[in-house]
Design goal:
heterotrimer, A mainly alpha, B mainly alpha, C alpha+beta, B: mainly alpha, two-stranded antiparallel ribbon, 8 helices, 2 strands, 2% strand, globular, C: alpha+beta, five-stranded antiparallel sheet, two-stranded parallel sheet, 7 strands
Chain lengths: 248, 207, 222
């Protein structure tokens, strides 16, 4: 039950409260570049969700099993050459950024092949945008957050498992899709408005994004409220009733 | 190749005419994310300068060995290595600032600006031109980030570089240091610069 | 008119050169990878320990202030004496889950144990709040708190980092859970909330209460 609530809150957090585009500022380039029409925006969003899921799985697996200090595969492989204790201390996280970016490039290649084979019209519509997903900050950002939750925790038991990592990735992708589709809807209307010449294009998109971000700020605190509602016994510290004499 | 811009031209172009943020609209993620305060903006610009310069120089040195189908891989590998080095240096020597910048330093890897410069300039020109291009673009990047950071920090907290510049009675426009403020500031400044560019072009035409 | 010649097969030397290029390409990537890999390994070996030290010092340098109070910590720094700080980990089973608290024990070389500093965290208004909680040796009194990480609203919730507000926690007894009130503080175990940031204030109090409830028995028994 605790696990399910945790997953739910991570998902809602990534999608709405800490929206990747409107709070963390990742994925801005496609957000401004691809958001002119709703169908391309939605297609882009779906492609991003697909890629981010695959990339997050690969990076979670590599981090947990190879890169982090004390990872099983590294410890076993190094244990063949050096002592077990020294092997357990090997820390390969300095290679993480390189590994992640190559995992992302491979995921994008894979998704491109898949889309070209099974969804040709979508492939034609997205055109050059698919390879551009490699430089979409949102995907690398998801991998980095997952890394910080595995490597950066004090307690090894608190390290994120695959379920939480995937929820963050999918939630982030869904949040990106929501933001980009809303922006596309607004821009379709903006095309009919009389925008002053200096502001046409990127500038007005950014100002609209600012107002959208203001709106999304209204979601702050939703996860705390949900947590308190779903798991009330966790929030009030019930100090065990111990009398002062017993303490001495 | 005489039709390529010279080193000096690359340098000057990078600062204002081909400013990476305001004209090319590249590298927008850090532009919005780290411009909360001047210190963070300057640190980020320094990191980008280091990565861009090293990547440009290395790519320029091996430019004759590059072939189309593997060049993106090599660019990515080079950039990722230098970003890791920059990230470790920041964590070792300015730990608090590296915590503030957080995940945005590794995001330099997917910063379109650097890959674009490698593609457009350093894979085609010699080391000097590539280096000058890197420095010019980084100065332009720093100017862009500082302009936004200055507005956000002064209006949002009344401080500039941590020093109070507005009187105590100033009600801090907290929205400026929050995400919406980033979008609004950048959008307005971009519109302003576009207007100024058209204004000058029209003046030159008439005058 | 010259008879049409059939196209000559590609001269073998060019084919060999093309293949060579592909091999050169792969070799190039490999050599670059090895160079970069070794430079990264070098960076890790030289800077890694420094980064670790930074992480540990982040909490350690707060310990004197939390245990002794700001004034006496300043005196200690001036005399260049240092407290012995021993990191431990206290395991706690809650709701069927095993977690461990990271605890620092502060000892004076002559006087013995001076107190505990516990690293605790929990959900705030916007995101997680992480703080350090200072307790006396028997975990009966709070000697101070310090907020390590928070992402509360600037100007409102992030006032939990201010010394004045945090000073309310100094000297509070741990026999009753702390309560956050909006008006006047009447009781011993009450903390005054930050105006406009009740949820953030309550979050901090909850984190403190939870940590105390989990650890009081175990720390006193040590």
């Amino acid at each position: 039950m605790v696990y399910l609530v945790d997953i739910l809150l991570i998902g809602i957090g990534a999608a709405l409260i800490n929206n990747f585009v409107l709070y963390y500022f990742v994925g801005i380039c496609p957000f401004i570049g691809v958001s002119r029409r709703i169908d391309t925006a939605f297609g882009m969003g779906c492609a991003v969700i697909f890629v981010i899921t695959i990339a997050a799985t690969i990076s979670w697996a590599i981090t947990t099993f190879i890169l982090m200090p004390g990872a099983p595969l590294t410890t076993w492989a190094a244990g063949l050459f050096v002592s077990k204790e020294a092997a357990a201390r090997i820390d390969l996280t300095v290679l993480s950024y390189i590994v992640y970016i190559f995992a992302i490039s491979s995921s994008v290649q894979f998704v491109e092949m898949y889309v070209r084979k099974f969804f040709p019209p979508l492939y034609k519509a997205l055109g050059v945008f698919l390879p551009l997903i490699t430089t979409n900050c949102a995907i690398l950002f998801a991998c980095l957050v997952i890394m910080s939750k595995i490597v950066g925790v004090d307690n090894p038991q608190d390290a994120w498992d695959l379920g939480r990592a995937l929820t963050l990735a999918v939630g982030g992708g869904i949040g990106f899709t929501i933001a980009i589709v809303i922006m596309a809807g607004i821009r379709e209307e903006l095309d009919l408005c009389d925008v002053p010449k200096p502001f046409q294009g990127a500038a007005i998109t950014l100002i609209v994004a600012g107002i959208l971000a203001l709106g999304f700020m209204g979601f702050t605190g939703v996860d705390t409220g949900l947590r308190n509602a779903l798991m009330p016994e966790q929030t009030i510290a019930s100090a065990p009733a111990v009398s002062p004499e017993e303490m001495k | 190749m005489s039709d390529q811009p010279t080193a000096a031209e690359r340098f000057i172009q990078g600062i204002l005419p081909e400013n990476p943020v305001y004209r090319q609209l590249l590298g927008l993620c850090p532009t919005l994310a780290v411009t909360n305060g001047m210190q963070a903006a300057i640190t980020m610009s320094g990191a980008v300068l280091f990565v861009l310069f090293c990547a440009n120089v290395i790519v320029s040195l091996i430019r004759n060995l590059l072939k189309p189908h593997l060049r993106i891989v090599i660019f990515t590998l080079t950039i990722a290595t230098f970003v890791t080095i920059a990230d470790r240096f920041l964590a070792a020597y300015v730990y608090q600032m590296s915590k503030v910048l957080g995940p945005y330093i590794p995001l330099i890897i997917v910063n379109c600006l650097i890959i674009c410069r490698c593609e457009v300039c350093s894979s085609k020109q010699n080391v000097v031109a590539a280096g000058a291009d890197a420095i010019g673009q980084s100065i332009g990047f720093a100017l862009a980030l500082s302009s936004i950071a200055a507005v956000r920090e002064i209006l949002g907290t009344g401080h500039f570089f941590g020093i109070r510049v507005l009187p105590e009675v100033w009600p801090d426009w907290v929205v400026m240091v929050l995400p919406p403020g980033a979008f609004l500031t950048f959008g307005l400044l971009l519109g302003l610069l576009n207007w100024y560019g058209t204004f000058r072009a029209e003046k030159a035409e008439r005058g | 008119m010259k008879p049409i010649q059939p196209m000559e097969p590609m001269p073998p030397s060019m084919m060999a050169r093309l293949k060579d290029n592909k091999i050169i390409q792969a070799w190039l990537v490999l050599i670059l990878a090895i160079c970069f890999g070794s430079s990264l390994a070098g960076i890790q070996l030289t800077l890694g320990p420094r980064i670790e030290e930074n992480k540990i010092n982040e909490t350690r340098e707060k310990v004197p202030e939390l245990i002794l109070g700001a004034a006496r910590a300043q005196q200690l720094a001036e005399t260049e004496k240092a407290l012995e700080i021993q990191p431990t980990s206290v395991a706690v089973t809650k709701n069927g889950r095993q977690t461990a608290y990271s605890v620092l024990e502060a000892r004076d070389p002559e006087k013995g144990r001076l107190g505990w500093v516990v690293k605790a965290g929990g959900q705030g208004y916007a995101d997680k709040i992480e703080l350090l909680l200072g307790l006396d040796p028997s975990a009966e009194e709070i000697s101070g708190i310090f907020v390590l990480e928070q992402k509360e609203t600037p100007g409102l919730g992030n006032k939990i980092t201010e010394e004045d507000w945090r000073g309310q926690f100094i000297g509070k007894d741990t026999d009753r859970p702390l309560e956050v009130v909006k008006d006047r503080v009447d009781e011993e175990n009450e903390i005054s909330a930050i105006t406009g940031a009740t949820i953030s204030s309550r979050a901090v109090a909850t984190i403190v209460n939870t940590a105390v409830a989990d650890l009081k028995g175990k720390l006193a028994a040590q």
